[in-house]
């Protein structure tokens, strides 16, 4: 009888550990996708959290600078980073989940300014350009040494300098910049004075990444990807999108994007 009780306790331990497993997810504030200032940390974080829950995994988020997020994951002090772009350099140290969303990089200008932009990076060389420190716009943008770049602590700061006429343009993420123009709680921005120029300079898929130095990295991503499939099929994902005010059409488009990728 005692041996039977010991056996029951032993086999129960892995189940308990699994059910109480918690992922420490780190990232930067990147609204409207995810942010500590958004309801439930934003729609993309809530989808990530919901997918993990189907695998018996809880999650906690820390929002910090992007550089610090990368260092924390490389040192295995966090489980995953949410919202990483793909790059050859990062691919050397991280495993990538399926694509989770798409962001677009491009140029903001003052509406009153006459800017000769033809969609190429080369056409930007006559202008002074503000960018958030360490922000990735495009490979061509990064490689062009003729650009006059002013680095700032944040995209809202760059947009504020643009609004004040202290720089000619801002290069950054379209969706994030438009969010800050609508929700200008960091600096005093006027959305009626700034516009985004088409075409985009680049588009970037957003991923959840895990360090290759984590021996369970592939297993973790398999579980996460499996969780995404489950919340698509059981309708949880559509409910999250509805909760975050996505239209039925946008929800359907997003679900198709996930299925195709």
Tell me the distance between the termini.
Answer: 52 Å
Shape: globular
The proportion of residues forming helix, as a percent range, comes to: 25-40%
Mean pLDDT: 91
Give the helix/strand class. alpha/beta
Question: How much of the polypeptide forms β-strand, as a percent range?
Answer: 15-25%
The number of distinct β-strands equals 9
- Unreliably modeled segments: 3-20
Which radius of gyration do the C-alpha atoms yield?
A: 21 Å
Work out the helix count. 10
Give a short account of the largest sheet. 9 strands, mixed
What string, H for helix and E for strand, traces the elements in order? Answer: HEHEHEHEEEHEHEHEHHH
Written overview of the protein:
This protein is of the alpha/beta class and 261 residues long. 39% of the residues lie in helices and 24% in strands. The chain is built from 10 helices and 9 strands. It has helices at 2-19, 43-53, 66-74, 88-91, 139-143, 155-163, 174-182, 217-233, 236-243, 248-260, and strands at 22-27, 58-63, 80-84, 94-96, 101-110, 128-132, 148-152, 169-173, 194-211. Strands 1, 2, 3, 4, 5, 6, 7, 8 and 9 form a 9-stranded mixed β-sheet that branches. Helix 9 (236-243) crosses helix 10 (248-260). It is globular and about 55 Å long.
